[in-house]
Design a protein that fits this description.
By secondary structure, this protein is α+β, with helices and mostly antiparallel strands. The chain contains five helices and five strands, in the order H-H-H-E-E-H-E-E-E-H. It is elongated and about 75 Å long. The model has no long low-confidence stretch (mean pLDDT 83).
Length: 195
């Protein structure tokens, strides 16, 4: 293998190491990791084949960037479920998921909270590359709709926002019914319209 090919292989291996670091830090999802790792692995196999020319396809970098963008998680909607009243208080953005689709998970979360158990945030793949992220707190659960799997880093940000939502609105959320016109909405800026 020529020194040019060794250099290309070294650069691809560095990309793989960086990808592993990004995944372990929670900045990319497992789904995104798998796609990008497969791509880099294929590039590395090509770079180390003895019969190929030293110059690899220059479109690889552009294609990899496009793949990364296409698989990045995008929050497009959120609904806020109130545990005490058992209703969805409001929906922001584009949240086109039928309520029955959420009911099983919301009942499980409600039972765990009633038993004063710790309830961790959870994600669930639904259809068409869409994911739901359930972020439970004391009075409410925020359910976010994503296109593509949200990485752990996104979930941590949503947990902080939902904590702030409940802290700001505690006086309104503590009762049996909630006047939604009084609620602070820290989520409004993070739900975007799908491309």
């Amino acid at each position: 293998m020529t020194s040019a090919r060794v250099g290309i292989a070294d650069r691809i291996q560095e990309k793989i190491r960086q990808l592993i670091t990004e995944f372990t830090q929670g900045s990319i999802s497992a789904e995104q990791f798998d796609l990008l790792y497969d791509r880099y692995s294929n590039q590395l196999s090509l770079a180390t084949m003895p019969h190929l020319p030293d110059q690899l396809d220059m479109n690889d970098a552009v294609t990899t960037i496009a793949l990364r963008q296409a698989t990045s998680a995008r929050a497009v909607g959120v609904c806020i479920y109130h545990h005490r009243s058992g209703i969805i208080l409001e929906t922001l953005g584009r949240f086109d998921v039928a309520p029955y689709r959420l009911s099983r998970m919301l009942k499980v979360i409600g039972k765990q909270l009633a038993a004063r158990a710790y309830v961790a945030s959870q994600t669930e793949k639904i259809d068409g590359g869409r994911w739901l992220a359930y972020i439970p707190r004391t009075y409410t659960t925020a359910v976010f709709l994503f296109y593509n799997e949200p990485p752990l880093q996104h979930i941590r940000i949503l947990e902080r926002l939902h904590h702030d939502f409940e802290a700001a609105n505690q006086q309104f959320l503590n009762g049996e019914s909630v006047d939604t016109t009084q609620l602070a909405r820290p989520y409004a800026g993070i739900v975007s319209q799908p491309r």
